[in-house]
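TASK: fixed-backbone design
INPUT:
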């Protein structure tokens, strides 16, 4: 498996590269079909007296879904170990799900009459959550301020992927995020699955029906 290591605000020593190469064997055992592991180390320094930290981001690429993990610590070697532990755990979960799926086929079933989902531990978003999303009143926890800078909105654009809710939950676990955007193959609606408490998940879907035109309203 090919390994790529880059540093942002920090140089990558030969010792760090050798440690990465030694520890990659763990990942190869869990993901033998993986083709490339990208390692990104970012150094962050603060002016308010806070101790600088190192963020290690791991991205595993192959024929299957992309798997990501990251960790932060004052020492980049410790951050590397933490990120590798997260990546290995995500790969183990995915492997266990594949084995369990072969013995116990899973799948979400939608009941048209009741509108309920069975066969997967996902609950539709509540009315309160939908109203909060629609009105933009979701409470946001303020982050610790570092150095002052103008507001920057980071944007990312992805190609749409059609999949089931169950597949979206699996993909969310693989990338280690708290949510995952997709297009529901059952309804063709843009949707997002998100993590709730414990191992519960929620799903929010957007209807694609256009609002009535002014001519239609006038008639």
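OUTPUT:
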């Amino acid at each position: 498996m090919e390994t790529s290591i880059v540093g942002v605000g920090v140089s990558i020593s030969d010792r760090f590269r050798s440690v990465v190469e030694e520890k990659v064997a763990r990942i190869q055992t869990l993901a033998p079909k993986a083709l490339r592991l990208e390692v990104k180390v970012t150094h962050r320094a603060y002016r308010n007296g806070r101790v600088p930290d190192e963020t290690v981001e791991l991205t595993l690429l192959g024929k299957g879904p992309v798997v990501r993990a990251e960790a932060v610590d004052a020492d980049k070697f410790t951050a590397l170990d933490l990120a590798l532990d997260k990546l290995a755990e995500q790969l183990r979960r995915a492997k266990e799900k594949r084995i369990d799926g072969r013995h116990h086929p899973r799948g979400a079933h939608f009941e048209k009459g009741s509108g309920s989902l069975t066969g997967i531990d996902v609950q539709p978003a509540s009315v309160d959550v939908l109203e909060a999303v629609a009105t933009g009143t979701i409470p946001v926890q303020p982050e610790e301020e570092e150095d002052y800078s103008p507001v920057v909105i980071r944007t990312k654009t992805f190609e749409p992927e059609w999949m089931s809710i169950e597949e979206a939950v699996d993909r969310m676990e693989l990338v280690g995020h708290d949510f995952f955007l997709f297009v529901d193959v059952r309804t063709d609606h843009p949707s997002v699955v998100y993590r709730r408490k414990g191992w519960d998940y929620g799903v929010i879907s957007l209807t694609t029906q256009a609002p009535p035109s002014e001519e239609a309203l006038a008639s």
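COMMENT: The chain has two domains: 2-103, 111-205.
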